[in-house]
């Protein structure tokens, strides 16, 4: 019996998670998976109901789960709250609480969507790269941090910090991923300016000795951003820290035509993980049946693969996505001339049907 926690969250989160849940039930039936599914509150929904973004009830469910499927958190109505009560603190809280240090963000361009990218088709056609982002360290969690008075004016400060062990464990995730792909790993840092990046590069080079079959390269983050846009297919796996990974993964997302197509997995050392689409809560279209559920459904495929060991189910979902795209069904974010515009629920229904198509 696998224990799954569903956290719909805010904005479009409940809509896209609802469609993913339909897919999950059907896949479980087809694959003979025994699942126990709970639901909890996180982000703004938790603040509204329980007064905090990562309440104890959710914390208990999360710690007991084998895997977590999350929709999205945040919304403009929460921007005036104290920092510790903002929805995003719930996301940071669950990552830290569960030790979800390894964030996997694939950027794959489906051939049916080559025209949707803002880059020329010949630049992005066949794109298939993986960004491995360290998720529980760096400037987002480093201490000291704050805003204080200095010399009669306010000064804001944050600390970027990484230990050798933190760098080593995320580097190994990157090398292991590269071993299963095309055996090329690019480590991204800013070692020409930052001491923390100097250490990062030294440790990655040390870890590389255990993976002689993987070709290791290094790029400064500014050059890496440029290269992602100039020639993205040169990359296989990229590994980087929390801040740089946050920026680069969203850059890579737009190479594929829509941020609404890309899933993610955040894993801890035991294999438990949190799975979510990389897009936000999109409050401007929430409740309007316009959101693209595909990234959430593909996140579900990653959940089956990485936390449940259900590779067959994961492949079944990924094949269903390709079939639906072949049928010409498109939500607004990926729509183009000659295709059929559909809403969130219709796309979800089509995905469920495609699970058994030949």
Description:
- By secondary structure, this protein is α/β, with parallel strands linked by helices.
- The chain folds into two domains: 1-105 and 262-358, Isopropylmalate Dehydrogenase, CATH 3.40.718; 128-255, 3-Layer(aba) Sandwich (Isopropylmalate Dehydrogenase).
- Helix content is 41%, strand content 20%.
- The chain is built from twelve helices and 14 strands.
- Strand 11 (263-267) and strand 12 (273-277) form a beta hairpin.
- Helix 1 packs parallel to helix 12, helix 6 (164-179) packs across helix 7 (195-208) and helix 11 (311-326) packs across helix 12.
- It starts with a strand and ends with a helix.
- The mean pLDDT is 93.
Entry keywords:
358 residues, alpha/beta, Isopropylmalate Dehydrogenase, 10-stranded mixed sheet, 12 helices, 41% helix
Would you kindly provide a brief summary of this structure?
This protein has helices at 13-31, 44-50, 56-64, 87-98, 121-124, 164-179, 195-208, 221-230, 242-255, 294-306, 311-326, 344-354, and strands at residues 2-9, 35-39, 67-72, 102-108, 128-134, 146-150, 153-157, 184-189, 215-220, 237-240, 263-267, 273-277, 329-330, 340-341.
Over all CA atoms, what is the radius of gyration? 20 Å
**How many strands in all?**
14
Helix content: 40-55%
Shape estimate: globular
The residue-averaged pLDDT reads 93
Query: In whole angstroms, how far apart are the ends?
Result: 29 Å
Which class do the helix and strand fractions yield?
alpha/beta
Would you identify the regions where 5 or more consecutive residues have pLDDT less than 50?
Answer: none
Strand order of the largest sheet: 2-1-3-12-11-4-5-10-8-9
